[in-house]
Amino acid sequence: MTDNASNVVPARLGLEAQQAELADRIARNVPGDGLHASAVPGLSLIQASAPSQPLPSVYHPSLCVVVQGRKRALLADEVFTYDPLNYLVVSMTLPISGQIIDATPERPYLCLRIDIGPALVNELLRQLGSPAPASARGGRAVYLARTSASLLDAVLRLARLLDTPDEAAVLAPLALREIHYRVLTGELGQRLRELCEVDGPSQRVARAIELIKTRYAEPLRIGELAAAAHMSASALHQRFKAATAMSPLQFQKQLRLQEARRLMLMDGIEAASASHRVGYESPSQFSREYRRLFGAPPRREIEEMRSTGG
User: Fold this and answer.
1) CA dihedral of 115, 148, 122, 160, whole degrees rounded to 10
2) DSSP SS3 for 194
3) Which stretches make up the HTH araC/xylS-type domain (predicted)?
4) Quick check: 68 and 19 in contact, CB under 8 A?
5) Which of 67, 135, 188, 297 is the most exposed place for a label (fewest CB within 10 A)?
6) Taking the domains of the chain in order of start, what are their residue ranges?
């Protein structure tokens, strides 16, 4: 029993030391709260000094490693809470609501977001081999996994390059390669493997998602979407909902509302014009669906966002 305890304690202390150094490096490299691109390609830094309301946004394929605080991601009715013990993987473009639930000015929420490179995943898969068994396929395109010391060590080496940007061009790809490897060989790495499985269910759903993204303002034609995914309409609906927790139509609706919000917030466009641009024919329908997603009518919600600097 003593031997087991001696094996566990150093590992825990190692994780705590890694997280403390990561927290320090993030805090020194962000100008304040918000999401910030970094000098290291593929690495973004996030800080928040207070809890937030749920904020719907579009998440792209990425790995989110929290080093301080906690955040909740909501996909439809499902909740994923990640903290320094668990990292979040998003393997497809998804409309997700994010809510920071543990943050103070003294101990702000700190997180690193690392872009997932499908080409790099594919290259590693060719080396790793062992394709997924059929029974393991078709899960959610977002999941939580336990943070290991080996993964955190690779993330820390990537973060250290923030202070040596001249070395990043050479060393960042090596650290990113190891990070992808650690995720692929981790407890739920099979989920990420599915992303690059040639012509597998996840790849087909990803093709449908890309088509919706590029033509979100047009009427959704399920037959055309199914043809692009090389699936029957019923199979596409089943696989799409298994991966995203929503139907293709619900997915398109969220993309439309997100883009309308961006147009109003960033470009100053009026609600009626924004709704028309993203494909709504009825302003009243747009207002109802916007309020359902964002919690307030378009004009009021945008005014609140501007007044709070959100």
Assistant:
1) 50
2) helix
3) 206-304
4) yes
5) 135
6) 2-192, 195-245, 251-308
Residues forming a β-bridge with 56? 97
Q: Give the integer Cα–Cα distance in Å for 204 and 193.
A: 14
For 239-250, b/e burial (b = at least 16 CB within 10 A) is bbbbbbbbebee
- At 181, list the tokens: 């490897």
The residues facing 109 across adjacent strands are: 48
Q: Where are the beta strands (DSSP E) in the chain?
A: 34-37, 43-48, 55-59, 62-68, 70-75, 78-82, 86-90, 94-102, 109-115, 142-146
Cα separation, 36 vs 158, whole angstroms: 16
CB atoms within 10 A of CB 83: 20
Give CATH for domain 2-192: 2.60.120
**Reported confidence tier of residue 190, pLDDT bands at 50, 70, 90:** confident
**Pairing, β 43-48 against β 94-102:** unpaired
CA distance 16 to 21: 9
Tokens matching residue 264? 């109003």
Q: What is the distance between the alpha carbons of residues 268 and 201, in angstroms, rounded to a whole number?
A: 40
Q: Tell me: the pLDDT tens digits for 46-70?
A: 999 999 988 888 999 999 999 999 9
Cα separation, 232 vs 235, in Å, equals: 5
| Residue carrying the six token digits 């150093």 | 10
In this predicted structure, the answer to whether residue 82 has a pLDDT above a threshold of 70 is yes
Give me the residues paired with residue 75 across strands: 78
